[in-house]
């Protein structure tokens, strides 16, 4: 495949994890020897199939599935402490979004020192989108000072934001 044509950078969201946030877990099941049991309830004579979990499949899709679509990209993940509480009702001493953005920018700059002009595609979930936004703001400010960090801004090709739409307020 040769030299990567782009960096795809994954940033997790609030209370997320740099790897677990991008994993898909599925259980393989097999039919139970007693797979046809009567439904319990109001005199129902219908039957239902039951199955027993036999193994759990965990796919880290940025690493295992992305190469099927695009095999010449470098996949990077960034992790940061995004917990907002320590236990019940106790605030967690957090860095600000500004600090997370600056730290992320410096880490990304170090990883891109030898490939400063390679396009970057950001994939961000929830709070990770704000971290990316702040990093790009900081990168833009680096124009006269640090060409490596400024090139993060110049090389940014796309940002994809994900959020959880199943939560209800």
Descriptive account of the structure:
The chain has 169 residues and is an alpha/beta fold. It is built from five helices and six strands, in the order E-E-E-H-H-E-H-E-H-H-E. The strands form two sheets. Strands 4-1-5-6 form a four-stranded parallel β-sheet. Strand 2 and strand 3 form a beta hairpin. It is globular and about 55 Å long.
Number of strands: 6
Distance separating the two termini? 46 Å
Rg calc: 22 Å
Percentage of residues in helical conformation: 25-40%
Unreliable residue runs:
31-48
Which strand order spans the largest sheet, edge to edge or round the barrel? 4-1-5-6
Q: Mean pLDDT, rounded to whole units?
A: 78
Q: Report the sheet-strand fraction.
A: 25-35%
What are the secondary-structure elements, in order, as H or E?
EEEHHEHEHHE
Structural class: alpha/beta
Principal-axes shape call: globular
In DSSP terms, counting alpha (H) and pi (I) runs of 4 or more, how many helices? 5
For the largest beta-sheet, the strand count, sense and barrel status come to: 4 strands, parallel
């Amino acid at each position: 495949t040769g030299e990567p044509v782009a960096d795809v950078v994954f940033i997790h969201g609030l209370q997320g994890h740099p790897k677990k946030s991008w994993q898909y877990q599925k259980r393989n099941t097999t039919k139970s020897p007693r797979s046809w049991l009567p439904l319990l309830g109001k005199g129902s004579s219908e039957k239902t199939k039951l199955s027993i979990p036999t193994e759990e499949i965990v796919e880290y899709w940025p690493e295992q599935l992305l190469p099927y679509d695009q095999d010449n990209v470098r996949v990077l993940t960034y992790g940061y402490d995004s917990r907002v509480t320590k236990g019940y009702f106790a605030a967690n001493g957090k860095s600000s979004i500004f600090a997370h953005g600056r730290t992320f920018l410096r880490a990304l700059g170090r990883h891109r020192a030898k490939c400063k002009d390679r396009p970057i595609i950001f994939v961000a979930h929830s709070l990770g989108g704000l971290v990316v936004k702040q990093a790009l703001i900081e990168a833009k400010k680096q124009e006269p000072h640090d060409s490596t960090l400024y090139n993060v801004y110049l090389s940014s090709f796309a940002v994809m934001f994900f959020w959880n739409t199943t939560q209800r307020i």
